[in-house]
Amino acid sequence: MADSNTPDIIYTKVDEAPELASASLLPIIQRFAKAAGITVGTKDISLAGRVLATFPEYLGEDQRIADDLAELGELVKTPSANVIKLPNISASVPQLAAVVKELQSKGFAVPNYPENPTTDEDKAVRAKFDAIKGSAVNPVLREGNSDRRAAQAVKNYAQANPHRMGEWTAESKTRVASMPGNDFFSNEVSTTLDNAATARIVLESASGETVLKEGLSYPAGTVVDATFMSADALDAFLVDEIEKTKAEGVLFSLHMKATMMKVSDPIIFGHAVKAWLAPVFEQYGDKLKALGVNPNGGLGSLLDKVKGDAEITAAIEKITAERPPMYMVNSDKGITNLHVPSDVIIDASMPALIRAGGKGWGPDGKEHDTVCVIPDNSYAPVYDETIKFFKENGKLNPATAGTVQNLGLMAQKAQEYGSHPTTFEIPEDGTVKMVLEDGTVLHSHSVKKGDIWRSASARKAPIEDWVNLAIARQKATGYRSIFWLDEKRGHDAELIAYVKPILEAAGVADKFEIMAPREATRASLETITKGENTIAITGNVLRDYLTDLFPILELATSAKMLSIVKLMQGGGLFETGAGGSAPKHVQQLQEENHLRWDSLGEFCALGESFRFLSEAKNNHKAKVLGDAVDAATQGILDNNRSPSRKVGEPDNRDSHYWFARYWAEALAAQDEDAELAAEFAPLAKALADGEAAITGELAAAQGKPADTGGYFVADPAKLAMVMRPSATLNAIIG
Q1: Which of 544, 630, 638, 680 has its CA 20 to 30 A from that of 272?
Q2: In whole angstroms, what is the distance from residue 652 CA to residue 239 CA?
Q3: Who's near 543: CB < 8 A, 6+ residues apart?
Q4: pLDDT at residue 41 above 90?
Q5: What's the mean pLDDT in 647-669?
Q6: Which region holds residue 374: left if phi is over 0, alpha if psi is between -120 and 50, else beta?
Q7: Cβ atoms 224, 458 nearer than 8 A
Q8: Residue 376: closest CA among 491, 228, 194, 244
Q9: Which residues on neighbouring strands pair with residue 435, listed in sequence order?
Q10: H/E run at residue 636
């Protein structure tokens, strides 16, 4: 895909807070890069952009846009790829509905999301939307495995300026609750294919054979899994935990990943909504269905659809009063854990709760101990063991703690559990089979109506690349290195069969340990508590979870992580941390014109991108730019120029001014490239001389509501006025 028109660096257009920040930061990056003859362009992978690119037939000629995600998907398979990837929305159904509504209000005649499609046309539209929602972007771009770690400057700052941690005591009632069996973990079977194969997934039932999916293609050496979660077992577990939580006098909370796990987890979330309001669904089920209620959409959507029915509303209020208090997303506004499936995302919610000493916010606006319901046992033990460790040992000390780095297997859609097109809610009792083209039954499960069946896979080349990446990283650091693999789990046992021979052939088997996630969690916590460092070598989902858990404990945030994807064809993908797209930050900007988003992740990725470009294209100026980015990042930290959370104090735009100034000063002071020093000396002086005017203009912009012209689709002119309010800075940067 790469050609002479492809920019040297692609900076992705995304959503919410990071996209707001881009309106301020990207012009600075482009100005500095231009001095070195480096082009920085954009590609739109935002939720709105993906919707528009998916439905061109509904749009006018002047409204249609290119499918930038597909183009990037081809680019990352080339050696010349150099992509800085910011966090994008992994859309839930409510988010899809919201973006469609906004696009329609702006004159884009995109179709509505059909929640209950009946016609062939609705089903076709639904299939297109389903390809957009959830983790639709990352599997396309991640043609390599993940190397995530805290940048040294960030870790140094965190140790010198330790963040506040909540107190843990042995008396804490906070705990993790998981299903006792019949979940994805206990039902998993896995095998490694000796030869390339095609397969189909069928359901054999009393009414005949239903093809759930066909045309699946796997190269030789692929690890292929299959498993299911029993709906009956899930429901019994949820009812039991609601009663236990009430008896214990603590908050009830559900922690899922209804964005990344876009098929399985919204269904599980819906089961929780139905369990919470079980008497209401029993008495008014037909009426709720007629009103268009889908519990998978959350309690918020349900309440909105029944608000005109006093009888149902009263029944909901009655049962709510009988339930235990619920963990709240926003207690002031009455937004509960079960309101919206994308509001409580496990990889962010569990670390925040653990950092707070096991406390969650209740409906009374106060903190309480909490039962953390994580139905499936695949990775729940990580959080369970973390909580047990802190109950026994007290809170972590960020001033002395070591670090946990992560190497994650994710290339070529490895382990995309629950978000694959191979996850199904079973329509009737029967047997699900994975059948190869020669008739061989690869996997088989007896299932009941409502069960959630899924398959995932990991290919040979990414697995081998992942192990070799681990060998290289261990050699470079000497850190304790642990493969988080459970020999008692089907999928992990197949991976271990890959890992051990590669380590032995390289003569480094003695430098690595293999532990199940629970044991690896404790070992890692023990290691960092002693001030030492470790590398967690994990699969895809654990990569996602751990690169929030440990950074939030160590640094107070996961948004400042250095995240490098070494693409398998030689290119580079540089992610800007695991901080999400921060909708609450957008809300604050809209209300107070203060953006607290911290672009430190972007700074870290930018430095790596420039250095990669230097090596890939033998561009010495790119290396000088990258090294100066690191100096500027250190300056931001050392001089406390990161955004404040409060209106009236320096925010994201101020941090960009200081970043530009420190970057220019570093370039002016360096002696590796005289041309760049001469270019940036006057720029550095202008930025320093303009300090009072610039900071004054930025401060004057705050305190009033900000209009960007749209939430998902901002008006470029309005967005620029909001995010670039300093005329003095704009004149200097251009």
Answers
A1: 544
A2: 45
A3: 146, 148, 406, 407, 408, 409, 410
A4: yes
A5: 98
A6: beta
A7: no
A8: 228
A9: 200, 441
A10: helix 620-638
Using CA atoms, how far apart are residues 186 and 491, in angstroms rounded to an integer? 11
**What are the tens digits of pLDDT across the range 443-496?**
999 999 999 999 999 999 999 999 999 999 999 999 999 999 999 999 999 999
- Burial of residue 469 (CB within 10 Å: 0-12, 13-18, 19+) is buried
Ordered DSSP codes for 464-476? HHHHHHHHHHHHH
Residue 419 predicted with pLDDT over 90: no
As given in the structure block, the two tokens for residue 429 are: 């009792």
d(CA 571, CA 81): 4
User: 134, 342 in Cβ contact below 8 A?
Assistant: no
The per-residue pLDDT for range 543-552, each reduced to its tens digit, is 999 999 999 9
**Percent of the chain topping pLDDT 90:** 87
- Six-digit token string for 422: 């191979």
What span, in angstroms and rounded, lies between the C-alpha atoms of 685 and 680? 9
Q: Do residues 556 and 158 make contact, with C-beta atoms less than 8 angstroms apart?
A: yes
Band (pLDDT 50/70/90 cuts) for residue 275 is: very high
In SS3 terms, 86-152 reads as: CCCCCCCHHHHHHHHHHHHHCCCCCCCCCCCCCCHHHHHHHHHHHHHCCCCCHHHHCCEEEEEEECH
Which pair of structure tokens corresponds to residue 556? Answer: 């107070």
At residue 42, the 3 state secondary structure works out as strand
For the record, the structure tokens of 152 come out as: 């040294």
pTM for this structure? 0.84
**In contact, 15 and 88? CB cutoff 8 Å:** yes
Q: Are 445 and 423 spatial neighbours (Cβ–Cβ below 8 Å)? A: no
Q: Are strands 144-150 and 561-567 parallel, antiparallel or unpaired?
A: antiparallel
